[in-house]
Amino acid sequence: MNVRAKIAGDLIVINKYIVEIENSKKEISVLSSHEVELEGKKLTVNLSKLSDYYYLLKIENKIFEIIVAKTGEDNYTLNIEGRIFEIGVKTRLKDIAEEYLKNKQKETRQDELKAPMPGLIINLKKNIGDGVVLGESLIVLEAMKMENDLKSPASGIIKEILVKKGEAVEKNQRLLVIE
Questions:
Q1: What gap in Å lies between CA 169 and CA 152, rounded to an integer?
Q2: Both ends of the chain: CA-CA distance in Å?
Q3: pLDDT digits (tens, 9 = 90+) for 26-65
Q4: pTM of the prediction?
């Protein structure tokens, strides 16, 4: 039975899978229990499970011995007749959802640098509009007679600076915003 979902105007069939191998994505459609489509080509297949990790896969007239080890939620290591492959497998719907969420996060992501303790702003090392990279020094905060180098929590552009040099700040006070 095909379950269908309408997403962003495209009709997506749940029996489609994305297999990622060696930084390449391939779409596989399961047409029936013995037929798949790979890159537009229909193939006759038969998968026999011999144990929890050992399978025989017949594609057309060729038989492959496969040992499978699950290494993550969507990740597997396959030993196919002595050759090792690291692969990821997910439904087409999950792949589209992950891509959508990744793009949405890029559009709306904002990171804040907050004061880890009360103190005095000694130095601001960047200005609004400056680019920063994760871990880059942004602000020097004096607390308990020690200078603390506050580093960027993300890469991006400084959107707002909410403090001034010489200003006293409280713990968890927002110091700047990175977009």
A1: 18
A2: 45
A3: 999 999 989 999 988 999 999 999 999 999 999 999 999 9
A4: 0.51
Domains and CATH numbers, the chain: 4-107 (3.30.700.30), 111-178 (2.40.50.100)
What pLDDT, on the 0 to 100 scale, is given for residue 95? 86
Specify the residue for token string 């969420």.
Answer: 101
Residues composing the chain: 179
Q: In a 10 Å sphere around its CB, with 0-12 CB exposed, 13-18 middle and 19+ buried, how is residue 16 labelled?
A: middle
Q: 84-118 pLDDT, tens per residue?
A: 999 999 998 888 888 887 776 665 556 899 999 99
Cβ(127)–Cβ(158) under 8 Å? yes
Distance CA 140, CA 117 (A): 12
Contacts of 7 (CB under 8 A, 6+ apart): 93, 96, 97
Q: Which residues contact 12 (CB under 8 A, 6 or more apart)?
A: 4, 5, 6, 92, 93, 96
Q: Which residue has the tokens 């095909």?
A: 2
The DSSP symbol for 113 reads E
